[in-house]
Write a structure and sequence with these properties.
Three copies of one chain form a homotrimer. Chain A has 272 residues and is mainly α. Helix content of chain A is 69%, strand content 0%. Chain A is built from 13 helices and no strands. The longest helix of chain A is centred in the first third of the chain and has 26 residues.
């Protein structure tokens, strides 16, 4: 065994492969023109099958053949869930494909744009920074311009005064004496701006927030946000299907860790 | 201080460096031929030493000089643990080197292939997607073809009916009323297919599952899977060394968080 | 909906864009010379604004316009916190910009070098491996040579015998019977070497350790290390501002999860 695996040589080989690919791609693109932007499932299937035929099969037949088509949660909502997981975990490899799929599934450019801004707060600036240039390429390729995005300061949705007062009281009690700066930005940046921006419905903001929390194992805060999601219109059937979608994209353990919290929220809201 | 750090300029510089590197690599590779695939520890050591001589030394002298050589867990098993951590955390930088090291250490291409498929379920599809092309390059460079991989539907290992009945009962009670879809795929995709695929022994599937759980701080599910790992043949000595290996690759805090769970499992299984 | 999103075509397109960018950059760099290394906020703002004007605004006006300028925690310390988050979460996209900003803010090359070595232990080797080449490029561009870094074995800071005896007792009790190897390396590699290296002050090692723990939701170990940080000189005001900085870079949920632990540590240390 060598003293240590070597990155440089591997990296050099990848650079060489890149150089070859650049030439091939340039030629191919010249011939194919805009068709090079279309999806070609066979290519990816071949690439995946060369490493794991079972994984390629599971992806094609089970994940896209069954899970994405299940009733109970629309393809559009599944895309929001999936995109939120990728951003929240910084999984750049699938972002371009999933951003495109989200737009194909009916997520609007404005909604995708707002999702990035929302998850900068809920999963950290570094994750948004990684997603930005990839979304930028997708937008450019689809001729999505600034006129389809929201301005910095749109007319905000009305504030639910009662719910906000309750939230302020809870946060002040829990955080006020510990981190006044956190309280300040939570109020002014999140609950009196971000959540009131009209470009993404509150129900959808809740959907991506819960997805982000589950994706990072942050179960302690799932209860509050799942309750909010259901207040905002997410049905129990949709929430249940959300867990199934999350199992595939955030991994089984994160889905299973979230189940007891979902169960508790469901039972608290059960009639009678 | 500038209003904001700028990615574009830095990125541009990296593109230029890449262009130069492509040319240099192309020339070098022409001369060196296949020798360019061999490891050259000195190069990486130099690169690491230019940033942190201590880290380069710790990697060479302590991690590869001591930890990987410790008795109690074979280099092959240490590779499975390490590869599982990288995939489960989406750490692509070290993947090519560690995939190669795993194959050198006796992990078969089939086992590595099954590891990717297994961790798609246990750490999320996006992580498998990031690892796939890197594994594909490694396989291509080593002339590993489809004939060394498992078919989509091999003859499965026999199902342990008693253990499966117990698992179904537990999952139904915990998840059944909350997310029926999750229950369905847990049964058909995981425990009546994935875990029974013969390409990776149940004991090794447990090894990578526990590694993935520890790597992501998912301690709540470590107990069940560590017990399963020991049922499947992992010794207590091996489990103890696994924590040491995980400390280096998943970080000290994740290793320490897992210790109480390991301790509990060890004590439950202690004779007497 | 296609059977599966396709990475290859997207990847090919990115390679083509890369080829074009390489040419454009090479030309531009030839004209601009060394000025290409300077920051040009407008460029990044434009790129971000093309995807999310709100996110670009939040980054410029709120994060860099307000948060980074808040009293209570110096820009230099905010850089240490931020860099620790990026390394601990493997967020490579922002690393070059933030490493440069850290050096501009007064973090020395030696301190940044020690930060990487420190976080290899506290967040895992794969994260350090991802950060190393990026730091290497930054060092090269700024002509930072080996003479500014610490040797492998510098004269160590004196060991606090009482605190170390207490730590050894606690770790032996908790870990000794479970994972002897972990105990061994915790003592010799961490507490009798890493923490005593003079290139990064103990207070700063605590700062990045706590940041790394919060960034990965490892709240169980925040209490011990925050107490150590305050023993090592971190003020309560600084700790409070640290949470605010972490909210933006590690995401709101991780900051909120850490608040109760900070509150408990603050109250235990309160006079009277």
């Amino acid at each position: 065994m060598a003293a240590r695996p070597v990155r440089n040589v591997t990296h050099s080989r990848r650079l060489l492969l890149t150089a070859i690919a650049l030439l091939l791609t340039a030629c191919a693109s010249t011939e194919k023109g805009s068709t090079s932007m279309k999806r070609s499932p066979a290519m990816t299937s071949d690439a995946a099958a060369a490493v794991s035929p079972a994984l390629a099969h599971n992806t094609d037949a089970m994940l896209f053949g069954e899970v994405w088509k299940r009733p109970g949660l629309s393809p559009r909502d599944r895309s929001l869930v999936t995109v939120a997981v990728l951003i929240a975990r910084g999984q750049t490899a699938e972002m371009a494909a999933q951003f495109n799929l989200a737009l194909d599934n009916g997520v609007t450019p404005l909604e995708l744009s707002e999702t990035l801004n929302h998850l900068a707060f809920y999963s950290g600036w570094g994750n948004a920074a990684a997603a930005l240039p990839i979304a930028g390429e997708v937008f450019t390729a689809r001729n999505i311009g600034a006129e389809q995005l929201a301005p910095v300061a749109p007319s905000l949705l009305p504030l639910d005064q009662a719910r906000e007062a309750d939230r302020v009281e809870r946060v002040n009690a829990a955080v006020g004496s510990v981190a006044p700066g956190l309280v300040e930005f939570t109020t002014k940046a999140l609950f009196r701006d971000l959540w009131l921006r009209p470009g993404l419905a509150p129900r959808d903001r809740s959907l991506i927030t819960v997805s982000s929390l589950v994706a990072n194992g942050q179960t302690g805060q799932v209860g509050y946000h799942l309750g909010r999601a259901m207040d905002n219109g997410l049905s129990q059937t949709e929430a249940a299907e959300m867990i199934t979608q999350l199992a595939f994209y955030a991994g089984w353990p994160n889905a299973f860790s979230a189940v007891p919290v979902f169960k508790e929220v469901f039972s608290q809201r059960a009639p009678g």
